[in-house]
Amino acid sequence: MLAPMTRRLAEVAKKVGVSEATVSRVLNGKAGVSDATREAVLTALDVLGYERPTQLRGERARLVGLVLPELQNPIFPAFAEVVGGALAQQGFTPVLCTRTVGGVSEADYVDLLLQQQVSGVVFAGGLYTQSGVVHEHYLRLIDRRLPTVMVNAAADHWEFPRVSCDDTIAVEQSLGHLRALGHERIGLIVGPPDHMPSIRKLDAFRAQGGERVEHTMHSLEGGHAAAVKLLRQQVTGIICGSDPLALGAIRAARREGLRVPADVSVIGYDDSALMNCVDPPLTTVRQPIEAMGRAVVELLVSQIDGAAVATGELLFEPELVVRSSTGRMGALAG
User: Fold this and answer.
1) 281 and 179 fall within a common domain
2) Alpha-helical regions (H) of the chain
3) Mean per-residue pLDDT, 20-28
4) Do 121 and 75 fall within a single domain?
5) Residues 267, 184 share a domain
6) Is the whole-model pTM more than 0.70?
7) pLDDT single digits (tens) 78-131
8) Domain count along the chain
């Protein structure tokens, strides 16, 4: 059996593609190693979960934590792909951290990332979306002055740069589309009452005269349950806060014996992968994740480079993508 040090040398050497002697020189601070190789060895140590030698711990790794709530909603892996690719172009390695129920928490991930001396952290769909709740792990990032960017964070009390899709415009586009098709009884399905992006969508819906609203969890099952309640109020159009919610609403309509879009029209939010392939192809509001992802990386790298970055919110305009799940008001008018 290999001793711990020998095993570490072997694993790091294999990952980087250099000799164990080269790894040893890096770990012992010896000369004769290029900067690129040295950086690659230190990054491999971080990725493999080994502690850096004491004399090297003061340097931040070229790692960036990418903290996501889940991967079941296709929008999150799509966002991770955009941000990860942009980070790689800048010479950084993304470390994907996905929360699981009963598993590693967001706070635990922050502790792990701080231990690994990461250069920065990007959060998408984080716990900061909860209204009126202060999570201490964000305060630790502020105390450490660690470069951080939040995505879709309607949270003015956090001193971080934020990149968001404009929820108000998304709802206005959806309502305008349905009303142009003759729909008057329109319902809204959004996340929990303390979910800030949902609160923004709800405020925009109310401001445009919308009344019928159901809160639920962000899942296909949640969309199904909420849609059943709206359909029993005889709505002919349903606006959803995510694509999975919309797919649940379509399933609910069919189980109620209704046709989409002949009897009820449904609009999603995100334009995540394969929404043009579902039955019927989903009309949805597209988040510009390519542009948002590039902005996130630009803001993060600017902080890492020591530049001053505004802590306000950078809003991106969404785009309504009209497909076949919406149509002119049908049999349920009235």
Assistant:
1) yes
2) 4-16, 20-27, 35-48, 75-89, 106-115, 136-144, 167-180, 196-207, 220-231, 243-255, 289-304
3) 86
4) yes
5) yes
6) yes
7) 999 999 999 999 989 999 999 877 778 899 999 999 988 899 999 998 888 888
8) 3
